[in-house]
Write a structure and sequence with these properties.
heterodimer, A: 3 helices, 17 strands, 15% helix, B: mainly alpha, 2 strands, 1% strand, MbnP-like_dom (chain A), Copper-binding protein MbnP-like domain-containing protein (chain A)
Chain lengths: 256, 336
């Protein structure tokens, strides 16, 4: 008898508290939910179609894309009050040839209104030199250099009549984390405060990004395939990374 | 403070690993004259089953493209895990690689791997051999599929990691349980350094040790007989192998290679990154009279290292005290 009274006394405020929270629009600090990000791969506004469609770079040179893969990692969300949440173990490999890999789901994110998102294009310094990894970072994905440890952050392969490489190939393997050829770039974008990313227990928003593959070849330096058609780390990779740092991703809209 | 806690953690894990009644427990033992290792099994808990699986994979020739080459084909125990008599590595389809196979021991103290330091973690260092067309000539997908379909591998993975799941991470972690446990620290030199009773240098060995300290330790530093730096010792005026600059892209690193360990040197012939010298006599004669003025030649070697016949014999006598027969003959590391 006494014991159950005790329990009741304990329970009451808990029930009160939680009902309290629900009645207002405020979100409880300790609830978590899910959101997703869709990466829609394009080339200068047209859908990216591998192997067949011909595109033009900023120099007006024709090219086709056979492979387009890139890492998005260390996703960080910020609220208007400046508080941030770094999503732990957030490493994703987006592969244009695998539709299921262009839409990523982020679980266990504290509910709330977020007004900024940022992430690494590539993989942070430490993981490039860490021991054997699995998941998105598994070397089986063909994004790890075995002779010079580290990940390929962005991989674009294709062809261009202007390329002087055998078979007119384009080989852009961008990576490397040590100066002067560090290619780690961070992308950040503000989210319209009127329509923030609203993560709720009963709402799983989707962010829609447009990814422009042609951004590798323009922005800071217009790339001509006659002079640059192959890079696997090094100074030329830095040129490409500086191009895509700002131009690769654009937040198009959010479905809350 | 940080150091202390690491040291404590380390001591703890060591204790855990020590006691088992039935079979001999595989341990990672740090010789008293060695510093704290870089790789400490923190994210790869050492177990008998993990080691046994790693060793089996190390000696598994069916992993290679033509099923003829295992890690153990190039890294042979009787040669301290280098490839005896091969100037450069010899892989699938009789393909000749471009570099001499390094021996495998004391890897847990290395921060970088390969002659040019391109690989940064012991766990990822087998990947290049697996995928190189000239070494094992295969890929991880094929290896994972083979292991999933080949008894007793699923059971061995279960014993080692608690699940029949097989992926590249577990393959690499188990291989590292084998390769990182390879410690060579029981040579005569080590016993003399640790003042173990009844062991002392002969007068020739001692004279050789003193000459070595005077002329060689600035690069071949004790106790690993390398300072793990990248240097040119003047093998060629212009090296055909870029060496370290292939990794750094820096011109002043052209033709530089990691200073190799000299432990077990008696058994690791041929010598240098391209295996050009078959005997220690040739190596010593190189330092005495053959050093070429390569662009990035180490300043210490600009006049070579003059050595007369007696000195050469004394240095050779000392170098042979670096042979660790207990390591080379340890059946724990042999193909079973």
């Amino acid at each position: 008898m006494k014991l159950s009274q005790y329990f009741l006394a304990l329970l009451c405020p808990i029930i009160l508290l939680s009902s309290c929270k629900k009645s207002t629009d405020e979100v409880a600090a300790d609830t978590k939910s899910t959101f997703s990000i869709e990466f829609e791969n394009q080339v200068n506004g047209s859908p990216l179609v591998l192997n067949t469609t011909t595109y033009k770079n900023a120099k007006g040179e024709d090219f086709k894309i056979n492979v387009f893969k890139y890492y998005v990692s260390n996703i960080k969300l910020s609220k208007a009050d400046g508080t941030t949440y770094l999503i732990p173990e957030s490493y994703f490999l987006i592969d244009a040839s695998k539709a299921e890999l262009t839409n990523i789901t982020l679980k266990d994110v504290p509910t709330g209104n977020y007004t900024k998102i940022e992430y690494t294009i590539g993989v942070d310094y430490a993981r490039n030199f860490a021991g054997a990894q699995t998941g998105a970072l598994d070397p089986i994905n063909g994004m790890f250099w075995t002779w010079n440890s580290g990940y390929i952050f962005v991989k674009l392969e294709g062809t261009s009549p202007q390329s002087l490489a055998p078979g007119n190939t384009l080989t852009f393997h961008i990576g490397g984390v040590t100066d002067p050829n560090n290619t780690i770039r961070t992308f950040a974008t503000e989210i319209n405060a009127a329509n923030p990313l609203r993560i709720r227990t009963d709402g799983k928003p989707n962010m829609h990004f447009i990814v422009n593959a042609a951004a590798l070849f323009t922005g800071k330096t217009d790339v001509s395939f006659a002079t640059l058609n192959m890079t696997m780390g090094g100074a030329n990779s830095v040129i490409v990374a500086n191009n895509y740092a700002n131009g690769l991703f654009r937040l198009d809209h959010i479905h809350n | 403070m940080l150091f202390l806690s690491i040291a404590l953690m380390y001591a703890c894990s060591k204790n855990e690993d020590e006691v088992t009644p039935e079979e001999k427990k595989i341990t990672f033992s740090v010789p008293a004259n060695f510093p704290t290792p870089v790789y400490n099994f923190e994210d790869n808990k050492l177990s008998n089953a993990g080691f046994a699986l790693g060793k089996k994979l190390f000696y598994e020739a069916r992993l290679s493209a033509d099923k003829s080459v295992s890690c153990g084909s190039c890294h042979q125990q009787f040669a301290a895990f280098t490839q005896l008599d091969h100037k450069v590595s010899h892989g699938v389809n009789n393909c000749q690689g471009k570099r001499n196979t390094p021996p495998l021991f004391n890897l847990a103290w290395q921060k970088a791997f390969f002659w040019d330091g391109g690989v940064k973690n012991i766990e990822t260092s087998p990947l290049n051999a697996i995928t190189d067309a000239c070494e094992m000539g295969t890929d991880i997908q094929t290896i994972v599929a083979f292991l999933k379909n080949t008894a007793p591998y699923p059971d061995l993975f279960k014993q080692a990691f608690g699940s029949t799941e097989i992926n590249s991470q577990l393959i690499l972690k188990s291989i590292s349980q084998f390769t990182a446990v390879l410690v060579s620290g029981n040579s005569k030199y080590d016993k003399v350094m640790r003042k173990e009773s009844g062991v002392s240098f002969t007068s020739a060995e001692l004279a050789g040790y003193n000459l070595f300290k005077e002329k060689c330790t600035s690069c071949h530093a004790e106790p690993f007989f390398t300072d793990f730096s990248y240097r040119s010792n003047g093998l060629d005026l212009v090296s055909t192998d870029e060496g370290r600059s292939h990794i750094t892209g820096v011109a002043s690193d052209f033709g530089k290679f990691r200073v190799p360990t000299l432990r077990n040197i008696e058994y690791t012939s041929p010598y240098m990154h391209d295996g050009r010298f078959y005997s220690l006599d040739e190596v010593l004669e190189h330092y005495n009279s053959g050093v070429k003025a390569s662009a990035n030649l180490d300043v210490q070697l600009k006049n070579g290292i003059l050595l007369n016949t007696t000195e050469k014999e004394q240095i050779k006598a000392f170098l042979k005290t670096l042979t660790d027969n207990e390591f080379i003959k340890n059946t724990l590391y042999s193909e079973s």
